[in-house]
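Entry
Fold in token form

___
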Amino acid sequence: MAGRAPARRAAVPSPRRRAAPRFAIVAARFNERITKRLVDGAAGAFASHGVPATRVDVYWVPGSFELPQAAEHLARTGRYAAIVCVGVVIRGQTPHGDHVAREAASGIQRVALATGVPATFGVVTALSEEQAWDRAGGEVGNRGEEAADAALEMAEFVARVAGRGQTP
């Protein structure tokens, strides 16, 4: 069959390597020295689970009240498997801290529910600065590390459910 082009074989798609998931840490600058320890705890948790530092982005916002808004914007980009929110709210002598902590907690929960992207609560709510330090790597642990651990677990849960259409 002269003049006929050789038959083409259908292209076989090469297996695509799935990119390692990305994570975000959103940190409140208010009480920044303590919050920095929470960020370090979260970053350390990611590293200990094999997540390269290049796959973790850190964003700073003015305070804990702003955490949900930042988390929602990040979640809606579709870039992140989970978002860790960290900050410090010290009650002080007025109920202002109570309002900030409540709105941060409910806002972060709303982000996760509305977007499907896990958003975890690593906000220290304390009665004193001493209590806050204890929860930022002191005697009581590190709430940033705990929030990153929860983010990793929830990201895995979401990925398994999406992959199989059922709970693990």
